[in-house]
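Q: Convert this sequence to structure tokens.
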Amino acid sequence: MRQEKTPEQKKPNYTVIELLLKDETNEDIPEEILNPLIDDIDNPRSFALLVKYIKRNIQTRLPIIIRALNFDFGSSPKSFDAYNDYKHQIEQLLEERDGVVDESKREQARLLLKVIKDTTVSE
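A:
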């Protein structure tokens, strides 16, 4: 689990994140920079950057984001099917063709990620 952070540490560093996303090397963003962005998922700017990051390697990064939102989601047999269903739905919603951005699909993906964040997993 992540440690509690001070309010200053919780704010995403948009400048650094945008610079890292402009880099064409497609490297992962360090956890200490990425976590405040994930925590700020309700902010449209944070979510747009998060989507850009996920889409660079959706198969690898989406599970990382889901785990960061709710570490236990998908860990029990009861929640594993829900984890896979949500992951697949989010992948489909974020799939954009010909550079066309569908804001309603992105909003649906954001809401699914919020559901994951707010889900309490029980055995």
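The chain has seven helices and no strands.
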